[in-house]
Amino acid sequence: MKGMKTRALRPPFVVVASLLLCTFASSSSGQTADQVVAKVLAARGGLLKIRAMKSQRVSGTISFGEASGPFFVEFKRPLKMHMQLTVQSLTMVRVYDGKAAGWANNPFGGKMIPEPMAEDDLKNITEESDFDGPLVDYKRKGNQIALMGKDKAGDKDVWRLRLTTKNGDVRYYLFDSGTFLLLKWEGKRRIQDKEVPIESYFRDYRNVDGLKFAFAIDSGSSAAEITQKIAIDKIELNVPIDDAEFEKPATPAAPEAAAPPSA
User: Fold this and answer.
1) How confident is the model at residue 195 (pLDDT cuts 50, 70, 90)?
2) Which of these ranges, 48-62, 65-79, 102-116, 249-263, has the smallest mean pLDDT?
3) Cα separation of 157 and 12, whole Å?
4) Residue 253 lies in a domain
5) 30, pLDDT greater than 80
6) Nearest to residue 243, comparing CAs of 96, 104, 133?
7) Which CATH number goes with the domain that contains 192?
8) How far apart are CA 104 and CA 118, in angstroms?
9) pTM value?
10) Residue 261 lies in a domain
11) Do the bridges between strand 144-153 and strand 182-191 make them parallel or antiparallel, or are there none, so unpaired?
12) Number of domains in the chain
């Protein structure tokens, strides 16, 4: 009977102990995570300067393997975005009006005319258009954060932060433990009904009007499988951008046909 009583009592004690451990871990992790986030935002230039941005224009070169071409992205509060890139004489456009409508074309897949975005595309672009980043006012945005502890990104010591969005998607951010600048991002994107793992690496930080930005971003399924490289030439803050840029775009011009050989 003693053995039966002991076995009967043990599970509740284990459950209570686990709950206490989770509670204390959550509380401690939450406080530490907030401290790390505060240092991260300070390293970028501070909340006041981040929130003072009304618009942003980024231009440079994007490369997919051996193919490359110019791109630009324009952002404007609240959550408006216009992106355009040209590779091999084909121009892709992605636009979000900051409310509920977005348009995109895929000339590399034969779709030249911008069409209304599907649900997954809208979900992605609403995150992309938030140029403050998901950590600024993360609670108001419905995001949750947790500090996962120390880690490594290459030869750098980093803090690994887990962010869970209001939609339940999980991303990991790896910040340099010394500078608190973002070195690596890990997550997944849904592309054509499939979840694809993506890693992005950030380097070449420069100061723009008191805020720090990475001017080189490499992305792929892993460090050994980099499929996209972004080299930024210029970042402009608080530039005037017409709201028409965030409406349904016109059909990009078709590439010019090659001239027939002379007889």
Assistant:
1) confident
2) 249-263
3) 40
4) no
5) no
6) 96
7) 2.50.20.10
8) 9
9) 0.81
10) no
11) unpaired
12) 1
